[in-house]
């Protein structure tokens, strides 16, 4: 779902279909400095007749200029021409009242695309809160700056660059800890509730893979996709081939808290289970079908019993994959109802490096449903209680293993 440009640009735009829950930092905020990633791949795109075709070719900016002149004459503060122009562009996108249609300045676009690629600059550690709402290091990521500096799982962060973390949210801590490559951040931590330590850590560029795999007890393959990014299809294919060679008896595909990402990645991942030509989704504008996507072939995992785990953090591309596998009888769904984002965005690149992310269509499951604001209800609902979370008891994964071990 991404890029394009206007007709006045000399070079043709790069276009790419993209699906994701939103631009807010969600569960991956527990990674210092990362938002939600989605890669930068491309996919074929077809021009559609605009639903808003009754709009004029150009807007009449006379009233806008009246506001500008009044602002210029009366505002007690500093403004720049760029600041005002960016404000107009942000406002145009916001006027749609669509939370997924957003204008990005060149800097915002750069930051956004770094997040699309699961790439950020930080220290590389998972951050959460303990039962007393203290900021806690869940785990430093092996080989990254936090780990090299000596940060350990269970450390309680009491200050960041001298600012107390008392009452600080995880998101706020994330924003304070991340920063440009080569810059430093100082963390004061309490270890084992007794030892106070200080660490000054040099931030570095960090890119996290979007796919994690392991083998569970009972010879069950486990594939976790945290976002549908640039590297997702190749990493998922590698995992599928490995599990096929191991002759696993079942697969768990964990899409919990996966906010989405690239449409082509969702199609390629779904194709690991579905025979070539199998319907994955349709895109519609109004009642008109404007695009259909089918499995590409190479269904390495076809016929292997599969459970897909979903929850209310599973959105867009993850819902496409879950819906495609379920509706084509390739997987059983366990967990909680998914988020419910059934629209597709396209990113349009402009010459100055800015971007427009704009909703271009709605998508429909193979069974014909659009899940926008409704989500996907799993075959078996399993919740994880606060008690289970504190005890590290993953009841949803346990339910998946029990189903596959029957």
Topology at a glance:
Elements (H helix, E strand, L loop, with lengths): L16 E4 L41 H13 L6 H14 L7 E3 L1 H11 L2 E4 L2 E5 L5 E6 L4 H5 L6 E5 L2 E2 L5 H8 L6 E8 L3 E8 L1 E4 L3 E6 L3 E6 L6 H14 L4 E5 L5 E3 H8 L8 E7 L2 E7 L11 E5 L6 H11 L4 E4 L7 E7 L5 E10 L15 E2 L4 H6 L3 H10 L2
Parallel strand pairs: 12-13, 13-17, 17-18, 18-21
Antiparallel strand pairs: 1-14, 1-19, 2-20, 3-10, 4-5, 6-7, 6-8, 8-9, 11-12, 15-16, 15-20, 19-20
Descriptive account of the structure:
It is a single chain. This protein has 406 residues and is of the alpha+beta class. Among the domains are: 119-207, Pdz3 Domain, CATH 2.30.42.10; 211-404, 2-enoyl-CoA Hydratase, Chain A, domain 1, CATH 3.90.226. Helix content is 25%, strand content 27%. The chain contains 10 helices and 21 strands. It has helices at 62-74, 81-94, 106-116, 145-149, 170-177, 232-245, 263-270, 317-327, 386-391, 395-404; strands spanning 17-20, 102-104, 119-122, 125-129, 135-140, 156-160, 163-164, 184-191, 195-202, 204-207, 211-216, 220-225, 250-254, 260-262, 279-285, 288-294, 306-310, 332-335, 343-349, 355-364, 380-381. Strands 1, 2, 14, 15, 16, 19 and 20 form a 7-stranded antiparallel sheet that branches. Strand 6 and strand 7 (163-164) form a beta hairpin. Helix 6 runs parallel beside helix 7 and helix 7 runs parallel beside helix 8 (317-327). The longest helix has 14 residues, at 81-94. The radius of gyration is 23 Å and the shape is flat. The two termini are 40 Å apart. The relative contact order is 0.16. The model is unreliable at 1-15 and 22-48 (pLDDT under 50).
